[in-house]
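User: Modeling request: complex.
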Amino acid sequence: MSTISRPQNPESNPRVKAVFDDIRATRGSDFINNLWHYLAFDASLLETIWHDVKAVMAKPSHLDPMTKELIYAAVSIANSCDYCIHTHTAAARGKGMTDEQYAEFLSIVSLAGRTNHLLNGMNIPIDPEFNHENES
Amino acid sequence: MSTISRPQNPESNPRVKAVFDDIRATRGSDFINNLWHYLAFDASLLETIWHDVKAVMAKPSHLDPMTKELIYAAVSIANSCDYCIHTHTAAARGKGMTDEQYAEFLSIVSLAGRTNHLLNGMNIPIDPEFNHENES
Amino acid sequence: MSTISRPQNPESNPRVKAVFDDIRATRGSDFINNLWHYLAFDASLLETIWHDVKAVMAKPSHLDPMTKELIYAAVSIANSCDYCIHTHTAAARGKGMTDEQYAEFLSIVSLAGRTNHLLNGMNIPIDPEFNHENES
Amino acid sequence: MSTISRPQNPESNPRVKAVFDDIRATRGSDFINNLWHYLAFDASLLETIWHDVKAVMAKPSHLDPMTKELIYAAVSIANSCDYCIHTHTAAARGKGMTDEQYAEFLSIVSLAGRTNHLLNGMNIPIDPEFNHENES
Amino acid sequence: MSTISRPQNPESNPRVKAVFDDIRATRGSDFINNLWHYLAFDASLLETIWHDVKAVMAKPSHLDPMTKELIYAAVSIANSCDYCIHTHTAAARGKGMTDEQYAEFLSIVSLAGRTNHLLNGMNIPIDPEFNHENES
Amino acid sequence: MSTISRPQNPESNPRVKAVFDDIRATRGSDFINNLWHYLAFDASLLETIWHDVKAVMAKPSHLDPMTKELIYAAVSIANSCDYCIHTHTAAARGKGMTDEQYAEFLSIVSLAGRTNHLLNGMNIPIDPEFNHENES
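Assistant: Request completed. Predicted assembly structure:
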């Protein structure tokens, strides 16, 4: 049950069509997932979000593609975003993630959940050794 | 300001000493950060948490060490755990993260924060193409 | 799948009936949404929550009604509360929100998600210029 | 660094004085903690929040006082509310919590953090056995 | 819709069978809920998580069993983990929670949500009276 | 304690200087707050984030400026981002927010925190009346 309606013929709007064409070209695929279909209810918002995603995920990078998807999925899990969890887990698989790597990813994410709660509960001082400003 | 007191001579408790010795041996360093010093108020809790961290972070792995720290840090940011953010950002640097990689990491984490909020707001259906159960 | 059962004839309890009557009178509508039906499993909890909601949302106000719903929906998105997102997005529409305003609302909420993650990751000092205590 | 200024003579406002008097009487103590001092910038908000807290925490109860504080502290940890963590951990100690119980509390809260992240990541179906609606 | 597939004959793997046998023995029940069935996709992850849960929830304890489940459920609510909310609410009922106690639990959890947001918004200083380190 | 060092002469980098000049021109002020100073450690990240903020907060709008800041601050509170809470609360004051409006804002944000937790705990079905897709 969505808070907006999925537009029926989104590409009749030339601004939407331009974004959809760019998605297809950037990804080398005809598949346009629901996010973009629903965002088409407002061409300006669609352009803003696509611009952002393309700038970060499709540009030349200092991190390998699977690592980028794992970072994205890790944040999405902590924020309980079901849609994002599914898209970025699938993308990580598409970029080579094995079942063993996925299991290890889940073990790290859940361990972080554990120590995050422990340390937020204890509220102890951060060791000065971790202050990056000291080092420059 | 902490919710517990930092024990004065934690290693006078042999169970604590055994854990501290294992931390030093596992990490190849004499530095014991505050987390373990404060956890020493309860030997059983200290053992449980160290067991968990060692099992996940120090075992043979299907992911490279820097990627593991980035996943850990990503969750910690989403959970606002200042202590964890500092320790795992420092650990990622210790495992080779450059400033360019850190900047890219921050761009991915913050983009995930953006689309997580967008999609939680819209609540759209997950495309059946992302259902991993279909594929097995 | 709920953690409690929806009571069958809630208004047979006079305390529940009194709250339902007040909801209808306050809102000028016969529609009682699921929240209140389920809360009727415990008359005391129902009274507490309705008292709270009425005190904040139905009293004379220094903010316009649509703005109040947008603030409510923004928090609900950050907390991943699907039920609350739907009720308060619908309420904002009922108080005049256009599709253009909704798109802009989503762009602000998601941008906040982005910079919240960025700044929680960087953990930089707050500029003294933002300290309201300085100004009094 | 606060977003509001701490009022200088809050009890010169009779509405504030009435709330402060009720806090002292309810708690049997002259200590008024910072929350109430700062909230005194707006008598209406002060009354609303005190009304809420008193209704839940000071009324005759089906749960023992220490358990109530532990539930409160658990939520506060998950929400990263430092002020609330400190007040409700201290309150739990004031109601009899031992160090052993606090250590066990932290082990449960952090384990929940772990499995919450694991299950939000996996997104598996809830077993029908857990549906309370089936049972009525 | 899950991110992993539920293994068909998990107990054909002896490591999985050993964990399932231990779950049945520890709980005194033949029912194995979905969490463990899905985790069986990776025996190592299954062992890690079961080890953690057993160590915390099934050991001799300084807190009563229902209180432990309420703490677990409270964190799960704050983290929006639907699966965990259902399992631990059901477990609390199984350990004696009445409807009156559940209503009171919900009133505390939701009040904590309220003051957590209020105090995170105001960002006021923690009273030195709450500093446990002062007391030792 | 930050995870990055504040660059000493950021405007010696022409890409940084171009962004800083645009911030000054857009805001009509010489004040550059810490966020931008620290982000200057990576010109590309600085450009990305400033582009995003400018696109949303400084463009012609369907919402009034104070409402936009309140929505931003509401999300920041729910995400425990201290820096963001301070900047956007100060910005709301700069755009006319009175103390009465701020108190009402806090009452709404904290009430949302309350009902978000309540409804995430109960997990009740969303009324079909709130389905916007039905209406198109």
